[in-house]
Amino acid sequence: MESTLYIVAIVFALLLAGTVAWLFIKQRRQIRQSEKKEAEASYKAEAGRKAGAGYQDDTGVIPSRQMQLQAYERLILLTDRIALPNLIQRVHQPGLSSREMQSLLTLSIRQEFEHNITQQLYVSAESWDAIRNYKEQNLLIVNQVGSFLPEEASGNDLNRQLLDLLVQNPKASLQNVVAEVLSFEAKKLL
């Protein structure tokens, strides 16, 4: 009888240990599944942000599509405003020296960019990088061409050299490429 009681106690202990082990394993699986779901949600949010469709700022606010579309619209306008032919036409002032015109062009590019800097909150990182690279390229072109002109050159000389460069090398400007990137990103929101 004592041995039967001893066997029942062992079986009971094994059943209890098995039940506890089973509950422990079940709990661990649930934790892993919830971690996996959180990781997938995080991955999807990051992929959406990179695509410009689900960007979420540090406050957890997701910009509305309308705000994102308006940002892309403003950045397309910015690319047009800092395109060198348009910029030259807009800021040209007769009687300026080459250095003064160079300064005026670079100042205008920087001001246009700074005026739209907050739009980066609403667009994809790739789109913002394209805008920033376009701005830097235009500044580089203006400064490079300006540095090759003689000290006594006029603003008209600088403008003519810039326009000649763009006519001879249409691929020297990133305007069309940047505009296409922005249009593509905006169309994904529609």
Write the layout of secondary structure elements.
Layout: H1 2-50, H2 65-81, H3 84-91, H4 98-115, H5 125-148, H6 155-168, H7 175-189
Helix pairs in contact: 2-7, 4-5, 4-6, 5-7
Main attributes of the structure:
single chain; 190 residues; mainly alpha; 2 domains; 7 helices; 0% strand; elongated
Described by the principal axes of the CA atoms, the overall outline is elongated
Biggest sheet: strands, sense, closure? none
- Total strand segments: 0
Into which percent range does the helicity of residues fall? over 70%
Report the structural category. mainly alpha
Rounded to the nearest angstrom, the radius of gyration is 31 Å
The helix/strand order is HHHHHHH
- The percentage of residues in β strands lies in under 5%
Regions with little confidence, pLDDT below 50 for 5+ residues: none
Report the average pLDDT across residues: 82
Q: N- to C-terminal separation?
A: 81 Å
Structure annotation, total helices: 7
Domain count: the total is 2
Provide structural commentary.
This protein is mainly alpha-helical and 190 residues long. The protein folds into 2 domains: 1-50; 65-189, no CATH class. The protein is 76% helix and 0% strand. It is built from 7 helices and no strands. It has helices at residues 2-50, 65-81, 84-91, 98-115, 125-148, 155-168, 175-189. α2 runs antiparallel to α7 (175-189). The N and C termini lie far apart (81 Å). The model has no long low-confidence stretch (mean pLDDT 82).
